[in-house]
Design a protein that fits this description.
- The chain is mostly helical.
- It has a domain at 49-157.
- The chain is built from eight helices and no strands.
- It has helices at residues 2-17, 21-27, 49-64, 69-79, 82-96, 101-106, 119-134, 139-199.
- α7 (119-134) runs antiparallel to α8.
- The radius of gyration is 31 Å and the shape is elongated.
């Protein structure tokens, strides 16, 4: 009888100190990622397009896993580049407060926050408002947006490499042309001139 009582007390104590499911979710936090409020949306230079595409993919994965749109947006805002994270965090807060999705996604385009908006968030917001009106999931649209962003980044990198090849050909020509004249043409001209003048 005493053993049964001790076992019951131990089980009750274990259940009492066992962490809640929210504690396990907090453990899956991204280490070293600054809060969205500490990220600078006005820093110089464009964001990495591949990081933006990865944020779109993460958003799609969260939605396919069954998370609400506001929770998924909050998670993505923690790891997305700043120009995307700041308006996304603002939208997530409005969705958590129960705002209409159409209004929540349009709030980042308001006049009091023009510096926070970029073209990638604008494209996602248009798609999210359309999905909210139709009542459909935006996961597939986010995946297509990620692919489009990656393709655009690849095309831009290829164009930059081609421009660099054209730009570098000028200095290389200026370096190699004098060497070619001095080492290739001048000795031939001197040799021919010596032969002609010696024959005369």
């Amino acid at each position: 009888m005493t053993g049964v009582v001790c076992a019951g007390v131990m089980v009750a104590a274990a259940l009492w100190i066992w962490p809640s499911p929210a504690w396990w979710l907090r453990r899956i936090d991204v280490a070293g990622v600054p809060p969205v409020a500490e990220q600078d949306p006005e820093r110089t230079g464009p964001d990495d397009p591949f990081a933006i595409a990865a944020a779109f993919d993460l958003f799609a994965v969260c939605l396919r896993a069954g998370l609400p749109t506001g929770t998924a947006a909050e998670i993505v805002a923690r790891v997305a580049p700043a120009r995307l994270a700041v308006p996304l965090a603002r939208t997530a807060e409005l969705l958590h407060l129960g705002a209409d999705p159409d209004r929540a996604w349009a709030a980042a385009n308001s006049d009091d926050a023009p510096a926070m908006v970029d073209e990638h968030f604008d494209a996602m917001a248009v798609m999210a408002r359309r999905s909210a009106r139709a009542g459909s999931s935006m996961a597939s649209g986010l995946a297509e947006l990620a692919d489009t962003t990656r393709d655009g980044a690849h095309d831009a990198a290829l164009a930059a490499a081609e421009r660099a090849g054209v730009a570098i050909s000028g200095p290389l020509g200026l370096c190699f042309l004098p060497a070619f004249v001095c080492l290739g043409i001048v000795p031939v001209v001197i040799g021919l001139a010596g032969s002609v003048l010696g024959g005369v």
